[in-house]
Amino acid sequence: MVLPGLEGPNVNPEGAARAFEVRRYRALAERCTVVVLRRRRGLPAGTSMADLAADHARALRQRFDAPVDVVGISTGGSVALQLAADHPDVVRRLVIWASACRLSDRGRAVQRAEAGHLRAGRHRLAQASSARAVAATSVGAAAMAALTWILSRRLPPVDVDDLVRTIESEDAFDATAHLARIGAPTLVVGGGRDAFYGAELFRRTAEGVRGARLLLLPRAGHGVTVSSRTARRAILSFLAAP
Asked: Are 152 and 128 in contact (CB under 8 A)?
């Protein structure tokens, strides 16, 4: 079960977006059945990470009669940590990919700025400003922002209320005190130059979960970590272990 990161349009993708998503998870799908589980639509004001995790737990219990492997990416990793802590009966193994027990100060600032742009109707600027933080270098950040600005007109409409409420839930999220409650075998994968989290928070997350493993890619930013072949190989090896 894959829990994806922040997405503007909270819908299952179609066309080119669907093809991109299928390609992203192809390596996982060679070893197991992959189901992508998105947050429900129409989130009420004040939705917390615990609320999102409870939604996901209900969906997993309805679909499966046994615990499943959960891979949480970026914001999806925050949901996955809360899910494993609050609903251990639905999680067999846990992968936290480019995510940690909380956002870094810079990560919070970036997402708060994105939420501000969204509330003001500046959707293209919101997407471009967030894209800058995905890269590990200033040159890469400028390129990502420019590319996102150009392509944003082709993207489906942003579900502003749901996206802002998800950002607000992660802004308040801090699982540090709850990591010890996670009993599922856990792998944390992070990049040393990830602006949303950072090496120290990846280490703190892995140290807080009993027996967790950490794969730290020292030179990788947020985007590179998610697309890394090294990360994919490590995740596949972890999920294939007895």
From this structure: yes
